[in-house]
């Protein structure tokens, strides 16, 4: 089955074509330079850029795949969660394509697409359907930090999530306090590689709590207070690298510890990790070491599928079509606040 997929939940305009469970094109038009001057994503500007980008991105996806519009058998798009004006562009474009060609259409959950992106390893994802085993999935990005219990393919429930700032948001806001360019998360990761993670001490919010929730607003505030008391740190290149390493270590410590603890409690032998922050080299390394030490298997989404992209949407659509999912109706609307737990209940 050839699936045309759209993803515009935030500031990435992406269109992909997935053929029989293999991503054959995955085009992403980034808006980083557009939003850099504002230090963050401006929803209205993002939607305008999506309108500008969507047609050429679709064209590029077909060119890279070698397929034609008449070769498409199904269409999918991110339905939520995300920025309403941004979601609307990709969702309506997908619906329009499906309606015009009388094709089945699926509106899918952004986090669910991230979740199952960890299970593709080059071969068709549908072929690995039976390999999707009981596991704890860490989904970590700029807007969300979630721990999900996966019992089997397409059967999952939320264990915990962020009660305030997400991990990626903490990375970006801490970077802004330090004076690093937007987006700050990758800059922190780059500088942290040459820093001492034990140079400065920062809190590990909710690390000792017995639940699976996260909170990173206190850590971000701690960084601000630290810089107010030690402004000279920002005048020393090595001190900045040490600061980045220390902040990153605090965030990663919470993510890894709570993920491994939940996995042990559930009695599972597998962890998956996905989402934009999973590109962070420190997080990937620490998860690998922690899982090896605990005798737990680890599946990490490949970097190209970690950030917002339509490839993961098309892969998930393939799983749903494979299982005989009922297509969405043509007048379905976006769901900006859609929660992952409601996906499996059919809400």
Description of the molecule:
This protein is α/β, with parallel strands linked by helices and 347 residues long. The chain has 2 domains: 2-118 and 305-344, ATPase, nucleotide binding domain (Nucleotidyltransferase, domain 5); 133-300, Nucleotidyltransferase, domain 5 (2-Layer Sandwich), CATH 3.30.420. 44% of the residues lie in helices and 19% in strands. It contains 12 helices and 10 strands. It has helices spanning 32-36, 43-65, 84-101, 110-117, 167-178, 184-192, 217-229, 237-266, 281-294, 303-306, 310-322, 341-344; strands at 2-7, 12-19, 22-30, 74-80, 105-109, 135-140, 145-152, 155-161, 270-274, 297-300. The strands form 2 sheets. Strands 3-2-1-4-5 form a 5-stranded mixed sheet, sandwiched between helices. A 5-stranded mixed sheet has the order 8-7-6-9-10, with helices on both faces. Helix 5 crosses helix 6, helix 6 (184-192) crosses helix 8 and helix 8 runs parallel beside helix 9 (281-294). The radius of gyration is 20 Å and the shape is globular. The two termini are 26 Å apart. The mean pLDDT is 92.
């Amino acid at each position: 089955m050839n699936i045309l997929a759209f993803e515009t939940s935030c500031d990435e305009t992406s269109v992909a074509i997935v053929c029989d469970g293999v991503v054959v094109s995955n085009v992403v038009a980034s808006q980083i330079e557009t939003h850099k001057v504002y230090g963050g994503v401006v929803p209205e500007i993002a939607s305008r850029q999506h309108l500008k980008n969507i047609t050429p991105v679709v064209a590029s996806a077909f060119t890279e795949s070698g397929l034609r519009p008449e070769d498409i058998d199904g269409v999918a798009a991110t339905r939520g969660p995300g920025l309403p004006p941004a979601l609307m562009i990709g969702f309506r474009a997908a619906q329009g394509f499906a309606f015009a060609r009388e094709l089945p259409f699926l509106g899918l959950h952004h986090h669910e697409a991230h979740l199952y992106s960890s299970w593709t390893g080059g071969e068709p994802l549908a072929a690995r359907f039976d390999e999707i085993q009981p596991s704890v999935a860490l989904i970590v990005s700029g807007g969300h930090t979630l721990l999900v219990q996966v019992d089997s393919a397409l059967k999952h429930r939320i264990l915990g999530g962020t009660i305030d700032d997400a991990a990626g948001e903490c990375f970006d806001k801490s970077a802004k306090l330090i004076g690093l360019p937007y987006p700050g998360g990758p800059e922190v990761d780059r500088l942290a590689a040459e820093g001492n993670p034990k140079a400065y001490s920062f809190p590990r919010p909710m690390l000792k709590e017995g639940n699976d929730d996260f909170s990173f607003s206190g850590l971000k505030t701690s960084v601000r207070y630290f810089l107010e008391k030690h402004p000279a740190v920002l005048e020393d290149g090595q001190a900045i690298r040490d600061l980045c390493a220390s902040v990153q270590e605090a965030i990663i410590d919470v993510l890894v510890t709570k993920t491994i603890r939940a996995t042990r409690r559930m009695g599972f032998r597998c962890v998956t990790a996905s989402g934009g922050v999973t590109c962070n080299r420190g997080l990937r390394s620490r998860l690998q070491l922690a899982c090896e030490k605990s005798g737990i298997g680890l599946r990490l989404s490949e970097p190209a599928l970690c950030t917002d992209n339509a490839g993961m949407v098309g892969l998930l659509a393939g799983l749903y079509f494979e299982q005989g999912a009922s297509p969405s109706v043509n007048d379905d609307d976006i769901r900006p606040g859609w929660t992952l737990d409601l996906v499996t209940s059919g809400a």
